[in-house]
Amino acid sequence: xxxxxxxxxxxxxxxxxxxxxxxxxxxxxxxxxxxxxxxxxxxxxxxxxxxxxxxxxxxxxxxxxxxxxxxxxxxxxxxxxxxxxxxxxxxxxxxxxxxxxxxxxxxxxxxxxxxxxxxxxxxxxxxxxxxxxxxxxxxxxxxxxxxxxxxxxxxxxxxxxxxxxxxxxxxxxxxxxxxxxxxxxxxxxxxxxxxxxxxxxxxxxxxxxxxxxxxxxxxxxxxxxxxxxxxxxxxxxxxxxxxxxxxxxxxxxxxxxxxxxxxxxxxxxxxxxxxxxxxxxxxxxxxxxxxxxxxxxxxxxxxxxxxxxxxxxxxxxxxxxxxxxxxxxxxxxxxxxxxxxxxxxxxxxxxxxxxxxxxxxxxxxxxxxxxxxxxxxxxxxxxxxxxxxxxxxxxxxxxxxxxxxxxxxxxxxxxxxxxxxxxxxxxxxxxxxxxxxxxxxxxxxxxxxxxxxxxxxxxxxxxxxxxxxxxxxxxxxxxxxxxxxxxxxxxxxxxxxxxxxxxxxxxxxxxxxxxxxxxxxxxxxxxxxxxxxxxxxxxxxxxxxxxxxxxxxxxxxxxxxxxxxxxxxxxxxxxxxxxxxxxxxxxxxxxxxxxxxxxxxxxxxxxxxxxxxxxxxxxxxxxxxxxxxxxxxxxxxxxxxxxxxxxxxxxxxxxxxxxxxxxxxxxxxxxxxxxxxxxxxxxxxxxxxxxxxxxxxxxxxxxxxxxxxxxxxxxxxxxxxxxxxxxxxxxxxxxxxxxxxxxxxxxxxx
Length: 750
Hints:
Layout: H1 2-32, H2 39-56, H3 61-84, H4 93-114, E1 131-133, E2 138-140, H5 141-163, H6 165-175, H7 177-182, H8 187-209, H9 217-223, H10 225-233, H11 239-259, H12 270-285, H13 306-326, H14 329-335, H15 337-346, H16 348-354, H17 362-376, H18 383-403, H19 408-424, E3 432-434, E4 437-439, E5 447-448, E6 453-454, E7 457-458, H20 462-485, H21 487-497, H22 499-504, H23 510-535, E8 537-538, H24 545-559, H25 563-581, H26 585-590, H27 594-600, H28 609-616, H29 618-622, H30 624-642, H31 648-680, H32 702-711
Antiparallel strand pairs: 1-2, 3-4, 5-8, 6-7
Helix pairs in contact: 1-5, 1-8, 1-10, 1-11, 2-3, 2-4, 2-8, 2-9, 3-8, 4-24, 4-27, 5-6, 6-8, 10-11, 10-12, 11-12, 12-19, 13-20, 15-20, 15-23, 15-25, 16-23, 16-24, 17-18, 17-23, 18-23, 20-21, 20-23, 24-25, 24-27, 30-31
């Protein structure tokens, strides 16, 4: 009985922390419609700030708490809303999630930049060592304070939402934003207050939970995922239900810590994964309210052209050849993942870009592919790569079937929960037998992967492996583009744009959604297997959730619906970042926050960076002489590099200079041509001022009306169904037209 009470108190103290954090999450979502995936990272950063002020600088505890919770946290919340979140109006759920996930990655990088990772930072509890005697058991002062703060937060939020004018405005804004605005509410002010309060609650939770954990940025940020499960219990709306969910999750963790056998190697990893398993089950079985979405989105992804697709595929192979013939073995190892993990990024294009579905576990599917090729690709058998795609596809289908009714943030949280459960538990299991089947994963540590052998040719060097990955990327890119051109691809795009409209036309969206999940997982499995071949030996940490989040971020930043977006992610993460990191330790630290900074700015250009880049080089694409000259200059620089006349850095400088000079010349030529066209146009007139400019470039006339009817085949005889006639007032299509009729002519009949 004593043991039960002890772990009940432990569970209630955890529940109190989760309730505090999740209440702030629910508050910001219900009032602004943005799910703050970085909520835990904000709590982590507040814990680091409190440790710095209280334990490093030696400030008194009350003053340190006031500075962090009362000053820094609210100001940070105000800044987030004003600078970042307000710019997300009219964007898709994927874009909003990318921005908040980018904030998560950026804050983790910022914490690692300020506080060197791996160092011990002991953080004592409040009233360290003191306990309250409850008769049958006792409770620490810290646990009592935690539970008391949670009760205070519940009472305070109840008072705020039901006893104050701003609270009533918050609830009204949730129910009907337009009606609240008509009644004098100020949504922008409501959002500012909500973010200030929500960030403050995250800070409180982070400070309370940090003493029981190691003060480490990544683990502390992801541990708060437990609070997400509590928010889901509350359906992201109800604070009382959120507190009930927090109690259920906290008690579950407490009892598992007390009663789960610690010497069982198979169940040992279930304890840290328990909360995400609960989150996954809550998403499946707790009814979720319809997400607040807009019918008109700011993102636009055109269908890829056949010429552009094959040109991109050829360029990828050409770049692979250049890299293999110019870089040394060490550089090839460093930049090798450009194409292999670029394939993992490419798996997000049909899923996120075409279908509008969100998955944060693509690198987890890559890990499944690595496991398959490690255990079934012995001696370099191609069967390993085939099974990597098959196994990853099978797991993707198994995940898609139960979650196919989910969308938006619910789907993102479900896939994140799956990824964390695999990281913390499944990937770390020892070998086991499932009936007659022997299952081996990473063998609790790491596993080796043999190089591919195809038709007697062995890809056993970094250069050959990079070329294999480049060719694979090019082939998969063409197949993804072919999917977009197909009937299935058009169905996926229609589903992304409006599921309601698809259902109205009788389309069954279940199996297209399962199919695209399966295909996406298969592509990710292929990329993960090729990445494992390049490494030779892989461990579960290579395929964890935090490692995969920057891939998701940069795909969406590049353009989720574009093949170039995947290439952008691969080049950015595994090309530019390693290149700049080699310039010094400071650049290496700054690069930890680079993906986060890129994603945070997505609200200003929701369609991504690739369309902007494409628009910037459009004059060069149209200027054939400049384009030919640029290619010739690059080929000349490459010949000089192969001949040993220049090294890699001068070669790279010449290539970059060729591109910049050719682009500048093409832009200048296009500008001069446009200027000449404007000068040739009479003042006050538009070029080709035809019927479409009547009333704008020149006065409207009866001849224009006749010309319009002729152009549109509206002759008043019923041939086209409608004829326009001028009204007596001189307007179009009004009553009182010529001939004495006071009625509009429709279908050739008055």
